[in-house]
Each structure stands twice: as structure tokens, then as C-alpha cells.
Amino acid sequence: DAMVIQNPRYQVTQFGKPVTLSCSQTLNHNVMYWYQQKSSQAPKLLFHYYDKDFNNEADTPDNFQSRRPNTSFCFLDIRSPGLGDAAMYLCATSRSKADTDTQYFGPGTRLTVL
Amino acid sequence: RKEVEQDPGPFNVPEGATVAFNCTYSNSASQSFFWYRQDCRKEPKLLMSVYSSGNEDGRFTAQLNRASQYISLLIRDSKLSDSATYLCVVSPTGFQKLVFGTGTRLLVSP
After folding, report:
1. Do A97 and B4 touch (CB under 8 A)?
2. pLDDT average, residue stretch B34-50
């Protein structure tokens, strides 16, 4: 049974056209994360929510925003996608922020920017 | 200097071989350490946590050397299904802010 679900799996958008990626979880975890992974690179944390508390990484561009309307759902909004934003976007969850709790990743959304 | 550095490989080994990967990290105050596995075009999945005393899970053994700031993963009796990218992951703060290495690619051939 899928625990972290991402929709769509593949998203194509045009340069500058806003796009929203979706993540949902059935684990009832408190923490949700968004990572960006470019080809042959490491996943890079963009931001995370601890419950409703939003935590942005210092080097995350302003072009990236997130919303968490409830425990189960979290959205990644890219306001004006550039060619450099083409990547795999991974959502993850963990029960708490303690390192003893495993992060569970969704299958990712592969974003193409034309 | 990258926070977490790994040899990208690929490591090409025959079935049954033993293979070892190393990883170095720059932040001496790092709290927690992990190995994740990522199959091609799939999400990362936790393989094992790494403890100071070393730990073993079946054919996989992980070691941590805090003095030298490196982490190792040993895979014995390699299987075809072990072919994947192995990501070294460090938590500098101890609170789930994971920093990933770029991964080491393993190819196991018949």
C-alpha cells in the first residue's frame, strides 16, 4: 500500500507558467519535506513542515513556495519555473524530527520545463 | 568542499563479489549517519543507519569512523538485485535535516 503519494508522476510545464506538485501521506506523520534532485545529483532539501510550522532552507529560491492545508497533504508551488528547475521533486515524511525516525519518500514527480 | 563526498563510480562487480564504498563528511559535529539506496528513476529508500560501533544487516555492514569523518558500506556476496545507487546521508543537526551525497553507482553483473 502506498504510504507517500505524489501526483502527477510526470509534469510538463512551460517556462514561466506556474505549476503545483502534490504530495499526500497515509502515515499520519507530523513532518513533511520537499527535496529537489537534479540529474546525477544528490537530493537537496528545499523546506519542511513540522506540523504547521514551515521551515525554509536558506538557499531555497523565492520562486519555490509550499502549503500544508492539513496533516495529509503538502503542495509545492513553483511560481515561475525556469529551465534550471527541471528536476525530480521528492516528497518525504517522518513521524518526528528525531533522526531515529525514518524518512519515507514518495515516488517523485519529474518536472520538465519547456 | 562538499558536505558529503562519495566516489560516483560506477563500481562494476560480478555476482558473489564483495564491494566496499566509502564516504567522507565535512561537519565534525554531525549527529547521525545513514545509507540509502536509490534505484534508477525511483525514490531513495533507507538501507541502514550507521552507528559508531558498526552494524550489520545480513550481507550489509556499515562502519563509522568519527575521528577520520568517514562512513563505509560493505556488501558481501553481491546479487544482481543490489545494482543501484548508494547514497551516503548525514544529519548535521540530529534533527532530520538530511544532507545527501551524490551517490555511488553499483552494477552487479552475472
Report:
1. no
2. 93
